[in-house]
Amino acid sequence: MKLTVFGATGGIGQEIVKQALAAGHKVTAVVRDPARFTVTGRGLEVFAAQVTDAEALRPAVAGRDAVLSGLGARTRKDAGIAATLTRPVLRAMEAEGTRRLLVVSAGPLAPVPWRQPLVDRLILSVINAVLKDVYADLRVMEDDLARSATDWTSVRPPKLLNKPVTGTYRTVIGGNPLSGRTIARADVAHAMLKMIDDPATVGQGVGVAY
Asked: What CATH number is associated with residue 28?
């Protein structure tokens, strides 16, 4: 497949690029500063652009089978950038007729499972209070996705870890895995690549966790 990856210098974005190349896909990595991007490999194109410029992004998404995005806040100070940076991507994709889009969101945006243990509910309430601005931004982003012409999937992980890919995790369409508290960035990338061809995930938020 021909894939485009936004947020390619981030933890999940880099993993998407590496795993996609290893699987034999052709990958366009969109980065602001190519000097910060150290991934190499056959089938890789590094595309330098400001993600805020939808017109400049059109060549990066034209003719692609799917676009995968790791764009989003890395700290609380970055709250607001997920929606801001995803909108130009949506406009570029709609202009080029590129439909499949998978983005990284967050587990707390999903409904809380009715069987969720009390301790998990308490942990979630604290996290929601601390990161409320980040999650509000992600909700705006997901609303933008729902109004778009793309075949979108919002992948919602819990706490992210820097660990190797395992390929073993749980997914729940429209919810979260029960008591799923962590997942490696590498496995989020693995899940996103796996979902590209899964029609059941289109137009859905999908929880991923161990």
From this structure: 3.40.50.720
pLDDT at 98 over 90: yes
Q: How far apart are CA 72 and CA 100, in angstroms?
A: 19
Q: Is the dihedral of CA 7, 189, 209, 161 positive or negative?
A: negative
10 has a pLDDT exceeding 80: yes
Return d(Cα 79, Cα 84) in angstroms, integer. Answer: 10
Q: Confirm if 41 and 24 have CB atoms less than 8 A apart.
A: no
Q: What is the domain count for the chain?
A: 1
Cα(205)–Cα(164) distance, integer angstroms: 24
Average pLDDT for the chain:
92
Contact between 105 and 138 (Cβ < 8 Å): yes
Full residue range of the structural domain in which residue 9 is found: 2-209
Question: Span 140-168, mean pLDDT?
Answer: 97
Q: How far is 5 from 14, CA to CA, in rounded Å?
A: 9
pLDDT of 26-36, one tens digit each? 999 999 999 98
List CB contacts of 125: < 8 A, sequence separation 6 or more: none
Question: Within 10 Å of residue 113's Cβ, how many Cβ atoms?
Answer: 17
Of the candidates 167, 153, 156, the one whose C-alpha atom is nearest the C-alpha of residue 200 is: 153
* Strand 44-48 to 26-31 pairing: parallel
Pick the closest to residue 1 from 81, 66, 55, 50 (CA basis). Answer: 66
